Amino acid sequence: MRVLVTGGAGFIGSHLSETLLNQGHDVLCLDNFFTGSKDNIWHLMDNKRFELIRHDVTQPILLEVDQIYHFACPASPVHYQYNPVKTIKTNVMGTINMLGLAKRVRARVMQASTSEVYGDPKVHPQKEDYWGHVNPIGVRSCYDEGKRVAETLMMDYHRQNKVDIKIIRIFNTYGPRMALNDGRVVSNFIVQALKNEDITIYGDGSQTRSFQYIDDLIEATIRMMETDNFIGPVNIGNPNEFTILELAQKVIELTGSRSKIVHKPLPSDDPTQRQPDISLARKKLGWEPKVSLEAGLKRTIAYFEHVLSSKGSDVVKLV
Ligand code: NAD
Ligand code: UDP
To answer: 59, exposed or middle or buried, with CB in 10 Å at 0-12, 13-18, 19+?
Structure first.
């Protein structure tokens, strides 16, 4: 099949592109390189079935494809809050453009949605039928509400135009190829620990997240795309929940770092708890995550050790 991956030079998109190529598909990787990097896809460039398109999803594009994985959008709070209006445009206009493309060429299209649609959840763990608790005017809403509108657009194109859609709600995912300056918690803590710099916990560290290793996400994502008669939304995440303080301690232990923990102010609207209920994914996709936090952190630490020691563009080949 000919498969379009938007955000294909990003953390998740590059793993997705690589796996799809390995499965024998033609991959069109589309990215505007806001947070993505050619380093992430350098090792795919000489594959004849791989094509790189520099393009911004807020602009329409004409392509002939069978499937679209729509992953283009900055995912780290630091980056999506850098230009919040652009983040909303990416989520709204980008999703309309991808749905228009899917409608025209009758492609199946998947939206990378997020646990952020649940906001600061009052129901725990979160199931797909929970409508969420999102501040519509806060600093995170360009992303949270942007993704909620994107889900609405997917459903309306499906009901109105019979577009073949899929919605996955991804929970915090980490792994190799996160950018050094990504700003999300796992990469921040690992980079700080490896440099023996202070580890910055925002707030008291009692807030929780459930961390999923990238390989588990990629497996579930492709399974979802290949499943008929199920459009989602479906939660994709690892239900093992940790406090941010526990994560910091685990990273210090696994790196043998001399770093000290310091506390910084908690950003506004930072969710206090987050854990996916993955019964639906278990039932519909026959999937559950396999990689423990410790195993995933070890692989990610090895990646960042290599990036920090070489800063070479060949790093991705080692993953
Ligand atoms: P990332 O920042 O590494 O990747 C995003 C990619 O999209 C980058 O390559 C960036 O350059 C590209 N991009 C951004 N705006 C674009 C635009 N207007 N046009 C074209 N390309 C654009 O982040 P990621 O973690 O790989 O996230 C990928 C997707 O998965 C995002 O849609 C994100 O919302 C979603 N997601 C990720 C997580 C997670 O924990 N990693 C959780 C929930 C949802
Ligand atoms: N966080 C932290 N230190 C950091 C980066 C993040 O304590 O250097 C906290 C952040 O406040 C949040 C959690 O870690 O409570 C997860 O943050 P991240 O940006 O990774 O993702 P989120 O789930 O908030 O979108």
So the answer is: exposed
Q: Which two tokens stand for residue 151?
A: 């889900």
Index of the ligand 1 atom closest to the CA of residue 113:
44
Give the closest residue to 284 by CA, choosing from 231, 211, 238.
231
Q: Does domain 2-172+212-236 have CATH number 3.40.50.720?
A: yes
**Residue 127 in contact with residue 277, Cβ under 8 Å?**
yes
Angstrom CA distances, 145 to 85, 141, 174, 275, stand at 12, 5, 23, 20
pLDDT, tens digit (0-9, with 9 covering 90-100), for 207-248: 999 999 999 999 999 999 999 999 999 999 999 999 999 999
Tell me how far the alpha carbon of residue 258 lies from the centroid of ligand 1, in angstroms. Answer: 32
What is the residue extent of each domain of the chain? 2-172+212-236
Q: What is the DSSP letter of 8?
A: T
User: At residue 317, does pLDDT exceed 80?
Assistant: no
Helix, coil or strand: residue 20:
helix
**Which ligand 1 atom is nearest residue 55's CA?**
20
**Mean of pLDDT values over 261-265:** 98
Average pLDDT of the chain is: 96
Q: What is the pLDDT of residue 310?
A: 82
Instruction: List, for residues 28-56, the tens digit of each pLDDT value.
Output: 999 999 999 999 999 999 999 999 999 99
Ligand 1 lining (C-beta closer than 6 Å): 6-7, 9-13, 31-36, 56-58, 71-75, 90, 94, 112, 114, 170, 172-173
Q: What b/e string do you get for 25-52 counting C-beta neighbours within 10 Å, with b at 16 or more?
A: bbbbbbbbebbbbebbbbbbeeeeebbb
Taking the CB of residue 4, how many other CB atoms lie within 10 A of it? Answer: 27
